[in-house]
Amino acid sequence: MKTATSWLNALQQNALAQFEQTGFPSQRLEDWRYTNVSSLVKKHFARATQTEQLTADDKARLQAFTLANCYHGVFVDGFFHAALSHLPKSITVCAINDAAQDHEALLAPCFNQAINAPHGFIDFTNAHFTDGFFICVDENTTLDKPLQIIHFATQEALSASRHVMLLQKEATATLIETFIGVDTQAYLSSSVLEVFLDEKADLTLYKLQQDSPLAYHFGGVYVKQANNAQFTHHSFA
Fold this sequence. Notes:
Helix content is 21%, strand content 34%. The chain is of the alpha/beta class. It has a domain at 79-237.
């Protein structure tokens, strides 16, 4: 994985400055009046470190949530784990930092553009993400199997990821986001996914959240779609 480019570094620094100014949203804000984040504010989570090897128990838990007949992209504690992944070759799937250089013309105009109401959780994720995917399905291309992105938290720490998915004209795909963790661990999992659908593109998204009962989780999905594009979202927790 390459290091972040200057424009992506600048975006992260700006997000950090904005978060330090505003913090997490409070119940004083109308859109958040029923969401109490006071217990999260009192906690401090260090950023997770990269895990090279999983324990036998962790491997078993990961296997239990790995779906058959899918492509798989596995993130362990916020870092992409290539050895545990099997990615499609018919579409572009690469690390967000790599895409910032290799696919800047596609990624830079999209980043943050599907988000119409920024708030502290987005700023927090943008500031602290360590990894993520840029996914592009070319015009008139249909992904032959679903792509499952598995976020696996194994540490009592913060893991943050940032994904951008672009479906060009008349492209079709199914994406499954799965969030799991070690049941005895208290951790913070934060992920933002932006989706961009060109004309007549079709994306079906499934989200499965099976985090530790001790965990804190923020997951945001933001979609910008052109005429006659179709987006279907199913969420299970």
